[in-house]
Amino acid sequence: MYWFSLTLFILCIVFPLYHIIGAYFGRAKKPKYITKIATSEKGMSILIPCYNEESILQTTIHGMSSLQYNNYEIIFINDGSTDQTMDVLIDLLSLEIKTDHLDIIEELSYRPIKGIYKSSKFPHVLVIDKVNGGKADSLNAGIAYASKEIVITLDADSILEKQALSIINNAFIDSNVIAVGGNVHVLQGRKLENGKFVPSLSNMKQIVRFQILEYLRGFYILKASLAKSNALSIISGAFGAFDRKVLLEIGGYRDTIGEDIDITLRIQQYILKHKGLKVLFIPESICYTEVPESWQDLYKQRIRWQKAFMDCLVKYAGVFFRTVFTNRVSFFFILDSFLTGIMASFFTVYNMIVIIFIFLDIPLKGYILFLGFSLIVNLFYVVASLMIAHDYGHRYAKKDYFYIVITVILEFLVYRFITLFIILIGSLAYFVKKDGWNKVARTGRDYTIEKASNSSV
User: How far apart are CA 438 and CA 441, in angstroms?
Assistant: First the structure.
């Protein structure tokens, strides 16, 4: 037990430092998709699954109006919503029933389609109205009806930065690139100034600030480091880009609670059989997404995330453990995500219980040392993520640093332990009831997205 605890302690220090160093020094070298600009636009089909999204759709549609790209289509997939989602789409898009023939990919599995609609207001916008089947099912329907070579997956509350698609297009100049993960920022952490989203931490709930720092660390450090090591195991469902042919070859999305992590792992397995292909993370290509503003919604979201991780851990356990020292995805998934994420959480809670309630004779100094190192590494993580984000143009005003300091302190004293217990509960809950989406409520807030002058979605 002692040696296992010591091993976890070392890994909990080594892996975060590895990611910080990898991401920090990796940012200095400009990638090819920045230095080599595409001379033509690849076709992109933007898939937006919708289930009870009536309150956010106006923001979503207005957000599309500012895209500086031409060769794309938008496909909204209404997944049997029980609210007014379809009525809102009909009203905002001026939908008309589509009667002409469409080439459909029969191999993909999805629930029956009730109707196909085309916008008379925006000619390149399509709406699929289908029987409820879940997010993966909706994405399969979208892939089947998509007419472009690149498939972009977005959440209904995601808003793309103006240059997001152009940067993605540059990445796909390399024919070996088959999947790209975009950068995701918290929508509530921005304010609109002169037509541009500017980072701001004022006038928001503390729970949102916690998540803003999480997203900065998660994308600018963890995902950047894993991608640099060719070990990216999850392209966020909020913003990902895929070669449509590859999605068809692997059979589309599977019915699982974590469709984004599952599809990424399957693409990584596809790469093992097709040497030279790549999965990239592109921090310059940004979308904005809403995060939960209540503890109840945050709990539901994180339980779902943890169940999704456990689902893939169980499904791919044989492959992971067989190749843990020969495949980078397996190595980081098992040693980093599983051991330092889940197992370390169990041991931390166990030691806390022993110290507080049982008073057994355990090395208290060692536990304090662990907490001290954790605090130092966490501070490094925050500082490094802010520095890297600053280099990419994500810059806070001086007054926001007061909120950052308060958030870091509260995160270490409170939020860290909340997320710790959520990891434990979610890991155990998977074996009790692994399904269930636990949809998070939208705020319904008007983010005053400005329309482009040409009013084209």
Answer: 9
